[in-house]
């Protein structure tokens, strides 16, 4: 029986993916085999030594201590793309709210104090202060063409916008999905200078933290609508404040509220609603549950931020070892030699690596005893050895 500890509320559709005869799933479990979470901050959480895998029902993993888990040989799985449509729709909504000043207009109507007879004339008198602009024919710059960025770019083009995209690391699959009408920028500056609207869809990593600072903001048009539904920290706070104070940008729309932003009329902040749809939460929960099961039950790794992708199918008649080791020379030879010395025949071997970690799945022709597993664990460079009990 596998034990899964949940640290956030997870959609029932995902929890139902864990069969009750194989899994105990609860928010109150000791010595779990796996941890399933959404936004729970794991950085200060004591992770039990029993944990074999972490599942994040979402794409971002800033709340997870990746170096620590990688050192322990624990893969962190996530669900990129599962909430892409939800975020895409919110970005489009953000553009329209900013363009038509809908937030101010809504507040104006809500706060009116007048009689029914006066209402029409007052609204007719005041509505010109909420005059906006149309997005048709305007240029949208999309920085980051992953699953969300591609959807935003294609949807904006379908709405009649000109679209320019920038992503020096775009994958082949995303390039195939991207409309041929989206123009390619060779440099970020080209997007910043050209676009009427700019939206970011990139991860928050050391290379992207504060990447939009004073110089980058200076490239933009004073009429620009800047949208951040990506990650808090992409845009430098002090540079943003300066641009808002000096009216260097027209509107800033963000899914990451801060106290310092609340005083600016040109700022629209939302309470981190990017993936907050029933459909997105279910998609993420189902996708991560399936990945966690695949890893625990037969060692396959789908989408992982710190481990390589490894395809594998159940081999009911065989014993399978999942071995995590440092990505250094001669490791496969040492492992194979140890198994050969114990008179084990290797039926199949699948070895993949990512950065400093290597992961090997080995199918053997008969069962492995604990002393041999201990011998494998004692090989220099081996981090973790797991015998997978296949059903």
Q: What level of helicity do the residues show? A: 25-40%
Strand order of the largest sheet: 8-7-6-9-10-11-12
CATH architecture designation of the largest domain: 3-Layer(aba) Sandwich
What fraction of residues sit in β-strands?
A: 15-25%
Number of strands: 16
Mean pLDDT: 93
Measure the end-to-end span: 11 Å
**Count the helices. How many?**
13
The CATH topology of the largest domain turns out to be: Rossmann fold
**CATH classification, class level of the largest domain:** Alpha Beta
**What is the H/E order?**
EHEEEHEHHHEHEHEHEHEHEEHEHEEHE
Residue runs with pLDDT of under 50 for 5 or more positions: none
Largest sheet: 7 strands, parallel
- Label the overall shape: elongated
Q: What class would the helix/strand composition place it in? A: alpha/beta
CATH superfamily of the largest domain: NAD(P)-binding Rossmann-like Domain
Q: Could you say how many structural domains there are in total? A: 3
Radius of gyration: 26 Å
What does this structure look like?
Helices cover 33% and strands 20% of the residues. By secondary structure, the protein is α/β, with parallel strands linked by helices. The protein has 3 domains: 1-81 and 277-307, Rossmann fold, CATH 3.40.50; 84-269, Rossmann fold (3-Layer(aba) Sandwich); 312-391, Alpha-Beta Plaits (2-Layer Sandwich), CATH 3.30.70.260. It has a 7-stranded parallel β-sheet, sandwiched between helices. A 5-stranded parallel β-sheet has the order 2-1-3-4-5. Helix 2 links the parallel strand 4 and strand 5. Helix 3 (84-100) packs across helix 6. The radius of gyration is 26 Å and the shape is elongated. The model has no long low-confidence stretch (mean pLDDT 93).
